[in-house]
Every structure is written in C-alpha cells, then in structure tokens.
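Lab channel / #folding
Pinned by the channel admin:
"Please post every new chain as: sequence first, then the structure tokens as a reply. Keep commentary short and put observations after the output so the thread stays searchable."

First post following the new format, from NK:
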Amino acid sequence: MAAALHWFNPWVRQAIERLAVEREKACDDEVLACGVKPSEYAGHLLRLVRELGDRASSFSPLEVSERSAIKDRILA
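Reply from TO:
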C-alpha cells in the first residue's frame, strides 16, 4: 500500500527493498530452525541460483538472489 501511494518517494522504495532482504533472511533463519543443516541449505541455494541463472530476476521471491546477496545469505 505504501509503495502504491508513495511510488515517487525514494525512501519508500529503499524501505521496501530492505524489507525484501530482511524477509529472505527471516526465511533462511526459519529453515535452519527447522533442523536443516546449514551446509545442505547453502548447497540448495547455490543449486537454485545455478539452475535459474538469469531467470532468477523474474521471480519476485528470488530477486534478492543476486551474487552478492546470495553470498551474504550463505555466509550468514
């Protein structure tokens, strides 16, 4: 709703981008809290990025999976 009403505001766009990053981190934390081994999950993330390649940017849940973001997620 904020994005629709304040599409012109760079602060709102930045906040939405930051929320997307934090959402991905929260999902990663939840997966690990369910008992998935970190190394197994990291491998899954790498396979996902390799298989999707350039198509990853067309999927909204995976838009955070740029090289630097995926590296940060794996290191976390």
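NK: The CA atoms of residues 52 and 62 lie 10 Å apart.
TO: also worth noting, The radius of gyration is 14 Å.
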